Amino acid sequence: MNVSSTAKLSFLHPKKILKIVLLTIVCFCFLPFFVSCNKEVRYFDYVSELRNNIFLAETDGFSLRVYSVTKESPYSADGVPRETNVRTEIWLVAPSGDKECNVSFSVDAQSYGGEMSFDNVKTEYYYACPLDISALKELVCHIEYGETTLDLTASSVVDESTLSPETVLQNLVTVETELFQGLTDKYGFAGEIYVRLIYEDSPYYYVGVIDRNGQTNAFLINAKSGKILAKRQS
Q1: Residue 155: is it exposed, middle or buried by C-beta count within 10 angstroms (0-12/13-18/19+)?
Q2: What is the pLDDT of residues 141-175, one digit of tens each?
Q3: CATH topology of domain 54-156
Q4: DSSP characters over the chain
């Protein structure tokens, strides 16, 4: 402290000096609290299910869908995000489900594949493995269905005009401010988020915002413009 500052303080009443010191201490004690309250929440960190790419192929009697996904484990829509795992999911519609079916494919010179199980509810064959294919443009799958063999080239529905899941979610946070602020406090976001790319003639996003009570606010979003096309609460 310089001489002029010391001189100024000498004219202050001791009680005023004590008040200034106490106020300074309080400000420093509560500074971390104010910083934590004002920290920016990265909502994408709370995404517990992500589908960021879809690959499609079709030929006579066969329809192939390949998904690039990330899912929490254990999987539960309870508003609590858990550790996630990256995986590739393959679904095949075939003439019937009474034949043995195998799939094989390669990514970066590594081979993958195996026997596909038949889902009696969806009436489709299914195969999954821990593999990230989100950046691919196509995937060539070799199918052995009973005595029939075929190669299907599944092409991605994502192109340069398709918004990323991160951009779609950030746009939603901006539009649905009340919803996200209502679930956000100094500890972060009290919920989990699903972001799924879907395809029906053109790509869309489904975004589900799930609170700790299991209530879901669901949104259908145009994957090109980011416009909300529909929303509902359940």
Answers
A1: middle
A2: 999 999 999 999 999 999 999 999 999 999 999 99
A3: Immunoglobulin-like (2.60.40)
A4: --HHHHHHHHTS-HHHHHHHHHHHHHHHHHHHHHHHHTPPP-GGGGEEEEEEEEEEEEETTEEEEEEEEEEESS---SS----EEEEEEEEEE-S-SSS-EEEEEEETTEEEEEEPEEETTTTEEEEEES---TT-SEEEEEEEETTEEEEEEEEES--TTSPPHHHHHHHHHHHTHHHHHHTEETTEESEEEEEEEEEESEEEEEEEEEETT--EEEEEEETTT--EEEEEE-
Query: 86: which residues sit within 8 A by CB, 6+ positions away?
Result: 69, 70, 130, 131, 132
Domain boundaries, given as residue ranges, for the chain: 54-156, 165-233
Whether the pLDDT of residue 12 is over 80: the answer is no
Total-model pTM: 0.80
At 79-109, the pLDDT tens digits run 888 999 999 999 999 999 999 999 999 999 9
CATH for the stretch 165-233:
3.10.450
Mean pLDDT of 41-53: 95
pLDDT at 29 over 80: no
